[in-house]
Amino acid sequence: MSDAAKTPDHSDVILERLTKLHPKLIDLSLERILRLLDALGAPHRALPPTFHIAGTNGKGSVGAYLRAILEAGGYGVHAYTSPHLVRFHERIRLAGHPKSADIDETYLATLLDECERINDGQPITFFEITTCVAMLAFSRAKADALILEVGMGGRYDTTNVVEHPAITIITPIDLDHQAFLGDTIELIAGEKAGILKRGVPAIIGLQKDGARDIIEARAAALGIPIFIQGQDFSTHEEQGHLVYQDEHGLLDLPLPKLLGQHQIENAGLAICALRQSSLALETSAIDEGLRHVEWPARMQRLTRGPLVDLLPLHAELWLDGGHNPQAGRAIALLMADIASSAPAPLFLIAAMKETKDARGFFAPFDGLAAHAEVIAIPNDPACLTPAQLVEAASAAGLDVSPAASLKDAFTKTIARAGMTRPRILICGSLYLAGAVLSDHG
User: Fold this and answer.
1) Which of 301, 352, 392, 410 could form a disulfide with 359 if both were Cys (CB 3.0 to 4.6 A apart)?
2) Of 409, 263, 271, 384, the residue nearest 327 (C-alpha)
């Protein structure tokens, strides 16, 4: 049974109330959250050493590598990510033994009650007040580090209340959330660079020239050390290994559990950040972290569940929540690499939010995907309609048709594939990925 069919937890009831405290889902500002944090006793000033991560793609994966490696090294780690896939509790992970875990339902409800009571009905967005909940949890539980992922942008993102992080990281930047961050790479990079802080080392992922120039200028204005991927450190695959190199030397490491060239680059960002931090780590911890890292809905092969049960023999089902052109390119490149060693026709099942560049996402699959079925995101009115997705995918060169639901799309895909043993990729939205995972355990 999916969570949607269960009796709501106490925390779910409070979370629903909190969505009504502000007329907008997104209203980028720090004034409201700072007001509430101060009323709560300033928990944002009592956090463990913090790795603050901004960027368009790869934030969650970099955070997952950081957490896996630190935990392999014996450190206790808190983590804050968004959005969640199945349950809100996933957003707040608290250090434990031997690893961190999603926040407990009873404790979450207690913190939600406290924040709602102290806020006393004043206007505040859902993300702002739930970030206050996370800050309370992180300040009250012992840990050696906090992995803090930006929700949107950086400069006015609610997580940017952390005044003195240990390390800042900016992953690759692309066009996304243009209505809030600006319609050029340079404007978006300016917002992301807002997490940089005086005296705090910054780790910068591979960037387009315009974005890198903006970030470097901001770092120079602050006078901070900056470590640029491809210039100050690098990672590449060589003979089945991940080779990391920086000014301190070379590391010969296992390939990460997460698949794709982009994941090798994400791993490099995490390794560089850890080597610039004050937390001591043996190479064996990096090895173990890379081998065992987990990050659902990022090129995840599904091996059980109701959709898997419908697959013909030897067919494959993959899931990825990437939802912008840069993510589309990374996913398509990995699918092409897999096909080069294990040929199979690729079929897409896709849904996307209405703010996304659907044509840009689909374009890299031209000539790679045999067909795409497009659907609406389940229970999400703010998504592109199947008709809109058909138009976008067709313009990108794909053979495409609409479907009434995920199950309908899956049934049509299997029928179309016939006896070809298809490779099916469900993609385009973390919200769609969450709907799939909620039924796949």
Assistant:
1) 392
2) 263
